[in-house]
Amino acid sequence: VTIQVELEREIEGEGELPSVHAPYYPGRKDENWWLVVGIPKKGTLCAIKRVSLQRKARVKLEFAAPSEVGKQDFTLFFMCDSYMGCDQEYEFELDIKEGESEDESEEEEGMEEG
User: Fold this and answer.
1) Which residues span the domain enclosing 64?
2) Quick one: which H or E segment has residue 109?
3) Does the pTM of the predicted model rise above 0.70?
């Protein structure tokens, strides 16, 4: 399964974002965001990716489809490693269909070549 997430920051002005105000951090701290896809009811983590977001970003998250056929509820978590209170959650549903087995795909490829 591949999902594509488009992110856009609502900021005024031009230029790069300033570093995070972190007076007790030993060096410069840049803001990072984590995109996490999971199934909270099952405690399943499907995909995770760190994003350094300036103004806009398009991120692809890939993960293996659950083995259970049917509708599955997922949650996309968008979490900041630098600021409290700005994390977001988005729920979405995927309808998982029965896939072909590898044997069936190989047989079809062999028939096309022959």
Assistant:
1) 2-113
2) helix 102-113
3) yes
